[in-house]
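cache lookup: miss for this entity combination. No prior model stored, computing from scratch. Input as submitted by user K.M.:
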Amino acid sequence: MPFTPEMAERRFGYGLSPQIVPPSSVAQMLSGLQGADVMAQAYPIPGFRHIQEQIVYVRRFSRYARKNPETEAGQAAEQKAKLARRALFHDRQRWTVAALQRRIGTPHAFRERLIAFWADHFTARGKSGLLRAAAPAYLEEALRPHVSGKFVDLLRACVTHPLMLHYLDQNTSAGPNSRAAQRPDRQRGLNENLAREVLELHTLGVGGPYTQNDVHELAKLLTGLAGTRDYSFKFRRNMAEPGAETVLGRSYDGPPGLAPIHAVLTDLALHPATAAHIARKLAVHFVSDTPPPDLIEDLQETYLGSGGDLMTCYAALLHHPASWTTHAPNIRPPDEFVGAALRAMAVKPEMMEALRPAQIRRLLLTPMRLMGQAWQQPAGPDGWPEDDGAWITPQGIAARLDWAVNTPAQLRPDLPDPRNFVHDALGPNPPADVVFAASAAETRADAIGLVLCAPAFQRR
Amino acid sequence: MTHAPLSRRQMLTRSGLIGCSLAASPLWTPLSLANAPWQGRLVVIILRGGMDGLDVVRPTGDPAFAALRPTLAKGDAPLDLDGYFALHPALRDLMPLWHREELGFVHAVSTPYRDKRSHFDGQDLLEAGTQVLAGAGRDGWLNRLMQFLPQVEAETAYGIGQEPLTLLDGAAPVANWTPDAALHLSPQALRLAEQIMKSDPQMYAALMEAQLLSGAQPGAGSGKKGPAHIEIAKFAGDRLRGPARIAAFSLNGWDTHRAQARTLPRSLGQLSDVILTLKQDLGASVWG
């Protein structure tokens, strides 16, 4: 099987680093997924509780300030709220840096790639107020611990997380016959958003064997999933639809609570259409926009045979020859490209940590936005496009070139010698035209930029 | 300029389906332009998310309406259009266009799509302009339209944003750009970039177009920028004053699942700004 360390890093990681030894085998790549989460410890990102604490804090001081606008104490309270808000959004940017540092420094890059993959699959964003800073916390606690376990656990953790419930409007969904819906003073109706996306995006896929009726029934089944005012999870019995619901021909009954919800999620997780959907997504994301059918079939059978065990699926992916031989490599989306570029340049932790919010925006966030990807802010719950055509546009390429030529010197003032950098970035056998360009460029910055924009670096 | 009033049926059979929405729109919305040998301008604005048409153009003359939409009827009074329909108050700035017969609405139009109510499939179908979504390699109706027209020119067909609109996908060439991007590279660096990308046709084509568009752009990288939707409208207006005849772009944020009374006015305000900016930028000679 044509495994090479360089390809392992490139296709299943964030590319080569001059400071990190690439994996020497598939077995090593897999065991890296199950060891201690070294990167999370080295570059910590807090969980959701931190966000909740800030929300409570800001709310308390804002309320006091609103009620006592003219007093000194009121104005001091307003100031406290303002500072806390600003601090949280600064933290948000520091967590972006932490995520990039994990990609720069990790010896187990496959884990970081998988997290990016599942984060896209289970997209959730804060739509208002301080929740707009919450995505990293959600990823840290709902997603990261589950990417190497069973799919059903990952599904359950993400779908019932307070941020997901907020993002897909589940918090206000009340069953038509629930107690909450009977109240004349407040309009409360069924919201199908979460149910639809669970079926369409998270499990069966849009081609799956479900109907609008299933969406409706699942939405009724999910009522009760909600949060408190502070976005802690709380099952709200008064919003839950009484009675049984039938989803995909199976009836889910029992007293309102989490048990029937867990049951339906388990059944969905093990459905053959889910296996097909997940298999296809993995193949498309890691290998090619048009993956060989036998790769998808292999992944699908493995998923079903193992009861949705993700480690077994990853092993099947890495052991399949097509994963290594297919020559229709995908373009790296902007966040992956930037991560790989920083990794190839071995940007120092001290440099990343010293970046101020304005610099993070100017050097990292705005360029990615121009490349077509606002960091962790896809437009919809279906996440970012896989199709290369979505990224390889005149604007996208121009933005990548601009960034690659103009930014590295600001993150690594002592730019490496381009003749060495070609190998740092592209391994022992870089294409001849890239080697030529690296030495023919007028400036070091140009040379580094050209290497980073070479198709051999842009695609993996 | 006055026109004989168009019946809804006539409008639909003449212009085909009026498309809407594509999934996953980025912040800088895609804008696509094409040349053609006629004087009229076609601007297609895709409202991503699915706009609630009943709330924007309200059939207040229908006795059932008030009972079916009790909460949305609250708030500022809608603006009467023709005694039966009334316009959402957030679009009040467009009323002068209505009075000058420059503005019309085609109400209660839909594709046959009823199935799973997927935002994304529904929107893709509208842009494809077909009964069902074929699968790989679908193209958009606007591109097919361009293919049927003689003298639709290649070099000024372009889109603004990160991804092409499916609307404009197909054999007729369309490109992507944003007013904010420009290639800041030395000529030598650009030459070398061309060389290394030559082996990758997809990337090479994008690079060549980027150079073209970067050169063609007025006031590239100049001064202060306004809100994104205004910038897109200004850019479109500017190109349409020139050789371009067709423009298509999208506006986000129409998926109002809850608190519509609060969120829809914002989006309607943006739409209103865009239409008025286009009218202003195109000028009397083009707008008519």
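stored under new cache key. The CA atoms of residues 55 and 186 of chain A lie 25 Å apart.
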